[in-house]
Amino acid sequence: MATNETSSGARALPVEEDFVAKHPKIAQLMTDTPEDAISSAVSTPASEMVPSSELPSTPTNGRATPSDSEPEPSVATSTLTTTISNSHGTGSSTFEFKHIGAKALSPRVGKDGAIHLKPVAASTRSRKKMRAVVSFKPRNSHFDRFNETSSRDQFRGFFTLFWVCLALFVLNTSYTSFASTGQVLSLTFATLFSRDAWILAISDGVLIASLFICVPFAKVCRRGWVRYWPTAVTFQHLWQATLLGLVIKWARYREWPWVQSGFFVLHTLAMMMKIHSYMNVNGNMADTYHRMRRIEGMLEERVAEVEGAEAGRGDEQLHAAWGKAVRLARNAAGFGDKDADKATAHSLAEWSALHKQRGSSSSRLHLGQALNAAPQGEEPSPKLTVKDESSQARDQADSLPDPPGRKDKQLSREEHIQLHKNMTDKTNAERKAGTDKDNEAKADSSLNRRRSTSRAASGAEPHQIRDPHPLSSHPDGLISDLAREIEVLREDLLSSRPSSEPSPELIRQDPVMWPANLTYANFWDYLLVPTLVYELSYPRLKTIRPLYVLEKTLATFGTFLVIYVITEHWIMPFTPTPETPFLRTFLQLAVPMMINYLLIFYIMFECICNAFAELTRFADREFYLDWWNATSMDVFSRKWNKPVHSFLLRHVYASTIAAWGLSKSMAMFLTFLLSSLVHELVMAIVSGKIRFYLFAAQMVQLPLIIISQIPFIKRNETLGNMIFWIGLMAGFPLLNIGYLVY
């Protein structure tokens, strides 16, 4: 057992041996329990009930156990037997404990003199877990006029000056063009990007329509016809590779200019990131759901054994045993008096019914939360409380060099175990200590002070389990621990908790429980929401502001006009050729291309993303941070494109750490490698050449990141920012010259 005291272990073992023998995974569950876990027969596992070496893991929901039709995985490579002899007076007794799948015992002597024996699992493979947090909360983009922080910026007048200068620049260019050619604007660039426009629009529509195959894919995983790991995930990657190959082939076949081919490939890559996140999240949730269903089967079998030998004869006897187990668990949790109420008894019967506790149920959420609320005048029962680790994980995520599970506000299994035991015992002891109300009030006040101190120290508010199980407080150790594991898996199937305080501007949303989200309407909404990371629900505003949408639409066309003028009159006429001097071309293109880059950034992240966010009422508008203050390229990569960074953080960086057990530095290298290859792919399609110039420019950032950590450079932020801007400004003309001339 995870932590065995000689006194408690001797009584519990004979009752549980048969059940453990029938379910080898329970033995693994025992050996995997952390040292500070509770002392019952089986404890909630730190990871899963199968060895980490059996199946691949994910940063979102972990691994999946095999389906019922597949053979059980081997859970042990050795068996360790411990013999304990106890002499008391004239009598003596001997107990033998078999630790399946253990290679040794780790002894520890407690403060009370009790000896705690913790089996060491035979598997030597370390379980590396990383929880990538991608939080969504109401935020405005930096340049949005409704951003209160930016509106108080002392340098906001310079932004106005920037646009005034651009307007004068466009007027001057147009006047010069009209004076020399008789045309206000040349139409050369317009002819270029309007070529084959209808075919491009139809092709993009076909691309969007093909993405809806994700919904039946998720439903196949939901029905359990295939497991996501490894069968469905293989199909997912093959389909994504085929889709990308067809898009590239079609773009080359149509011989589109660089504008059309670049747009089509970039849009395809964005959609591929969207569908990858959708299938990954729902596939992992499907595996979690079926793992939960198998544990529910174990729980029902254990309830039948404990609450009546005849209970296994049929469904009627099983329901009777289940009802008896629920009553025992409710009494153990201190809800006996509350359940005596007639109205409460009716709701309890409905909520705790066996069919209601199976699988996923949205209606069960509301009933469970109401029934498990503490009686009037008492604090909410801490037995249903776990600590939120999102702040710690978010700090860790913010420090990652480049690359965006489950995700925001996810429960910690280890702390779930410890708090579930310690706080339950504390609360039950206080409830049974006496009947004097004054003493109870003092105990509650003391508990509140301790709880407040703990919250202040941790920096995070605890949260109640949103879908509690009625048997989580059952006196039988196996029953309660299996029920607690089901609680944790249910939390994994629920939408993320709100990341901010309730606001009158936000829609109050009930938690969404998988698979209620598997609809075509939900998928279409996800395609429109300006994010590349899928969640069951997002923070939403109550209203759509038509004038705001109009403002962003006009800003898009106005900014595009400036881009058109710069491209038509200041970039295309200076297209490099082998005969043109290198330095001359570089100096002519550096400033216009830098301005175009800034304007394209503004159109994408400030205009288009905000417009789609407003249309979908998406409340999180923080699509970028202050990347212009970056002191190194790793800071720039994290801040300039948050949607892509969030995707890379969750589905590439954290996934490689959790699934392959890589170190952070190696995961960062693979993330940069993937990003560099994708950038080079886009340039190869746009230019029709494979030169690896952009790939090299991306990969050279790695040693530059190391250099930026030198104390002298790290302290001198102005120097770092200057180096960043020089590198960025030089990169665009150098790449232009390289791909067009060489």
TrEMBL record:
Protein's membrane topology: Multi-pass membrane protein
UniProt keywords, alphabetically: Acyltransferase, Endoplasmic reticulum, Membrane, Transferase, Transmembrane, Transmembrane helix
Pfam hit, one: MBOAT
GO MF: ergosterol O-acyltransferase activity
Keyword Transferase annotated: yes
Location relative to the cell: Endoplasmic reticulum membrane
UniProt keyword annotation of Transmembrane helix present: yes
GO cellular component assignments: endoplasmic reticulum membrane
GO BP terms: ergosterol metabolic process
Function: Sterol O-acyltransferase that catalyzes the formation of stery esters.
UniProt similarity note: Belongs to the membrane-bound acyltransferase family. Sterol o-acyltransferase subfamily.
Protein name: Sterol o-acyltransferase
The organism of origin for this protein: Pseudozyma antarctica
Lineage of origin: Eukaryota, Fungi, Dikarya, Basidiomycota, Ustilaginomycotina
